[in-house]
Design brief:
- The model has no long low-confidence stretch (mean pLDDT 78).
- This protein has a domain of 53 residues.
- It is built from 3 helices and no strands.
- By secondary structure, it is mainly α.
- Helices cover 57% and strands 0% of the residues.
- Helix 1 packs antiparallel against helix 3.
- InterPro entries: IS402-like_dom.
- This is Insertion element IS402-like domain-containing protein.
Length: 80
């Protein structure tokens, strides 16, 4: 899987997690309140940001690039 595809897959997974309908979780999961409580705590603690950083580094290393450097994207500025 190429770098951009891996990043797109991670972003899609993140977006899907953000849209989870908590009350509609499969029956083999814990009650939705419990799952949401863990998710909210991990999100507040930055677990998902850390995971995203780790995955980014692993993809960059797998592609033979420097794991810690990346190009910052220019900030879009509104035109007047």
């Amino acid at each position: 899987m190429s770098g951009w595809r891996a990043r797109r897959t991670v972003r899609q997974a993140w977006a899907a997690m953000a849209r989870v309908m908590w009350r509609c979780l499969p029956h083999d999961f814990a009650p939705w309140e419990t799952v949401y409580r863990y998710f909210a705590a991990w999100q507040k603690e930055g677990v998902f940001d850390q995971l995203n950083g780790l995955l980014r580094r692993l993809v960059r290393e797998a592609e033979g690039r420097d794991a810690m450097s990346f190009r910052a994207r220019p900030v879009a500025r509104p035109t007047r």
